[in-house]
Amino acid sequence: MENTLSPGLYIVATPIGNLGDITLRAVETLKGVAAVACEDTRVTGKLLHHLGIKQRLIRYDDHASEGDRERLLALMEAEPMALVSDAGTPLISDPGYRLVRIARERGIAVTSLPGPNAAVLAMTLSGLPNDRFLFAGFLPNKAKAREDTLASLANVPATLVFYETAPRLDASLAAIGEVLPGREVAVARELTKKFEECRSGPPGELAAHYAAHPPKGEIVLLIGPPGDEPVGEVDVDALLRAALVDAKASQAAGMVAKATGLDRKTLYARAMELK
Ligand code: SAM
After folding, report:
1. Superfamily in which the 119-223 domain is placed by CATH
2. 138 CA → ligand 1 middle, Å
3. How much is the pLDDT for 29?
């Protein structure tokens, strides 16, 4: 396929952990284009080195200047150009939207090569209903905005899929426990990597687990649809027992109170009984 690609933009998905997940077509395209636009030249440089591909790399993200974007658009009018992100499918919570939009407006050929995507992979793994799902990117950082976003999605009849970071997982699970109690939640972590896991249950149970075992790495957070076999009452004793593994009764009560919205004093009394 080398040197046979026509001019235009080639959107190329790359692995999200396991380098074996690159497609044959992605490799041929990355070899055959005139240059590769990428978020971080070091990250993409490493991938190309692993694949034995030497390529001209051009840094591009959505904060790129108008001039940078115009230069890239001029190149893809004359030659085949690839766009990759650090990992996964470009444009999906990654740069590229403006570039693709303008390229299409100008009649530049745009081709997208399917490949790894963390949201879809987590959806297939979670066991949550998959006939309808809504990908909602990252939840906001601030507590009020996070709760408002969850509330705005409460009646969507679909599994909700979010990108998440390890340091914020506890706050997001607590917010889900408050705003969408009774929903089944899944945490899909480190997908395609050595420590891949997918854990599901009520938000309070997951909050207690991750309070006792702070998560590392990359995370997709999923929330089952409303009315789909809602998870029963939270098993407070199970949450407290899980938290008591590594915490004192007062801390355990605090964690479970935060995750479930239940009264801290009552939880403390119960934690003392369980100890
Ligand atoms: N465009 C990428 C894709 O197609 O999946 C997503 C880029 S976004 C900036 C990065 C987020 O994707 C991470 O914070 C995490 O939520 C999710 N993610 C990426 N790789 C992952 C992995 N291996 N396991 C779990 N989540 C992952």
Report:
1. Tetrapyrrole methylase, C-terminal domain (3.30.950.10)
2. 10
3. 98
